[in-house]
TrEMBL record:
<protein>
    <submittedName>
        <fullName>Short-chain dehydrogenase/reductase SDR</fullName>
    </submittedName>
</protein>
<dbReference type="GO" id="GO:0016491">
    <property type="term" value="F:oxidoreductase activity"/>
</dbReference>
<dbReference type="InterPro" id="IPR036291">
    <property type="entry name" value="NAD(P)-bd_dom_sf"/>
</dbReference>
<keyword id="KW-0560">Oxidoreductase</keyword>
<dbReference type="Pfam" id="PF13561">
    <property type="entry name" value="adh_short_C2"/>
</dbReference>
<comment type="similarity">
    <text>Belongs to the short-chain dehydrogenases/reductases (SDR) family.</text>
</comment>
<dbReference type="InterPro" id="IPR020904">
    <property type="entry name" value="Sc_DH/Rdtase_CS"/>
</dbReference>
<dbReference type="InterPro" id="IPR002347">
    <property type="entry name" value="SDR_fam"/>
</dbReference>
Amino acid sequence: MSARFTGKVAIVTGSSSGIGQSIAVRLASEGASVVIDYHSNPEGAEETQKKIAAAGGGKTITVKADVTIMDDVKNLVEQAWQQLGSCDILVNNAGVEKHAPFWEATESDYDLVLGTNLKAPFFLTQRFVQKLMEAKKPGRVINISSVHEDMVFPNFASYCAAKGGIRMLMRDLAMELGPLGITVNNVAPGAINTPINASLLEDKPKLNALLNNIPLGRLGTPEDVASLVAFLASDEAAYVTGSTYFVDGGLIRNYKEQ
Ligand code: NAD
């Protein structure tokens, strides 16, 4: 694969599994040095590191950072600069969802979902931008949002609130950060085959109903998402900012308000 990211440094949050792991492997396999962030799964981070090595990818460092903890957020960006000398690309990927009818949703689940999916990208991006401003460098921010930044998801109200929030955060930051040469975009996956969907994958009737709503007739793979992220992080997307790009097999086009 060509080395589009030689000399670039990328942070990928939540890169010990699923989509984040594939993004880390993809960027590194095209020459980026990558900060692998993990929360509670060091084995997964090691697996990411091994996959990158097997792909002949760039340099990696592994940092344990819970993105809901602001000191960890600061340290994650610091480690990129201290150990890899820069940080050009930030992929806000870490995410969680909690299932509950609205009237049963708890404050702690709300705080976890909003903290991980919205507050963390807000302050991680802020720290990323502060460091770029000091260094007078351009940069790329890519948020992994979801079709649910736009499409309802009954029983996942906090997840919808967070992903809807990151849609407007991205639009606002594209305006504020454009003059600094920093682009900001969202990648919105549909149904992707990852651990976050473990219970859906085991529920055949539910899975088949979902597949019937996906024009391309299959779930997405983490690699489907990673290739779009790689495009947005590359020089080919130099003039692209302030939008959401869906990678969902057409699911969102097949969607009607319920
Ligand atoms: P996943 O569960 O494999 O990945 C989530 C990652 O986030 C894990 O590595 C986890 O450790 C990490 N994480 C969670 N809380 C964290 C914290 N506090 N600090 C640091 N890391 C933390 O699932 P995935 O499908 O790969 O999800 C990745 C992103 O894609 C999420 O933002 C999710 O909302 C989004 N997404 C996934 C799908 C899908 O169908 N899989 C669809 C739309 C959007």
